[in-house]
Amino acid sequence: MSGYQEILTDPSYAGQFVLFTCPEIGNVGINVEDMESTKAHMGGMLVRHLSLNVSNYRSSQSLPEYLEQQNVIGISDVDTRAITRRLRDTGCLNGVITTESDKTDEELVAMARDWTIVGKDMISTVSCSEPYEWTDPTGEEWEWAAAAKASKKGSLHVVAYDFGVKHNIMRRLAAFGCRITVVPATMPAAEVLALKPDGVLFSNGPGDPSAVPYAVDNAKEILGKLPVFGICMGHQVLGQAFGGETFKLKFGHHGGNHPVRGPTGAVEISSQNHNFAVDPKTLPADVEVTHVNLNDGTCAGMIYPALKAMTIQYHPEASPGPHDSDGSFETFVEMMKAGK
Ligand SMILES: NC(=O)CC[C@H](N)C(=O)O
């Protein structure tokens, strides 16, 4: 019932509709602190019941007010169970939500068929245009990890490639003591290295990783020179930079309850949002698949020790969501400290 705001403002959902399986949405309104970016990116929102009562001390706006302000279409009183059951058989489907009632069914079906996520560079549509420093406070009162509480602020410099970066990734890095410079997705590797970071983050982001070869080329140039961490789109970009291939999943992973087995054998409950995945069969022998999605056995994380590279296919920064994977930030920080 919470989390719709983070999903709505997650740039990785750019251009996509999200059908919420939770029957009641909107009950905690919208607040200014939990934004994952500066605007709503989702293409449209489908819910069973839009809560008429907003009850949360941090709420400053209702969900429909925010959608209207952001020009994002939403539809309620939809039989979300029926659509979910269909999606469960077919996998992800294209759709149209429209207010143009003069359009015929054939025209609407043609519009839906016309759209594809494959082969489109979507990260350049959501990335920042200029570099900036991340300065937002981390919010001590929300902190849960002892290691983050103890870390010395600003001791490590991370450059974050903004493929559509979620703000909570920066909040978590800052909580673990990092100073962060966010740079556009297209910034050449040489300019990133000139900033003399201790590590480089390749962020999450929307769309097909095969459609952004410039990001893969930059990653190839940085690999081996500095510790790197790839999250979601960043994991896929690094997977390609290692020499592997990505493919589109029939059933994309979405939601806050995906079991993932990590390198110690412990199972993390993770928050996920991706439609593409790295094919482990295509990876060179030096790459170790460290994390496996236990729902379908797909690759959920890798390390390439010789190149000081680590990747996670899901969301260690999830907020709200399980904190099981938060330790990935600590691992990245330790890797940067070791490389200093
Ligand atoms: N959250 C993300 O970074 C999504 C990764 C990628 N765009 C996918 O859909 O697979």
Question: Would you write up a description of this structure?
Answer:
The chain is globular, with a radius of gyration of 20 Å. The protein is of the alpha/beta class and 340 residues long. The strands form three sheets. It has a ten-stranded mixed beta sheet with strand order 6-8-7-9-10-15-14-13-11-12, sandwiched between helices. The chain has a three-stranded parallel beta sheet with strand order 1-3-5, with helices on both faces. It has eleven helices and 15 strands. Helices cover 27% and strands 24% of the residues. It has two domains: 4-114, 3-Layer(bba) Sandwich (Glucose Oxidase, domain 1), CATH 3.50.30.20; 123-339, Rossmann fold (3-Layer(aba) Sandwich). The chain has helices at 4-8, 63-70, 80-90, 105-114, 123-126, 146-150, 167-175, 189-194, 213-222, 233-242, 327-339, and strands at 17-19, 24-25, 44-46, 49-50, 73-75, 132-133, 156-162, 178-184, 199-202, 228-231, 245-261, 267-279, 288-293, 299-304, 309-312. Helix 9 (213-222) packs across helix 10 (233-242). Glutamine binds next to strand 12. Glutamine (GLN) binds at residues 12, 204-207, 232-233, 273-276. Residues 1-98 form the Carbamoyl-phosphate synthase small subunit N-terminal domain.
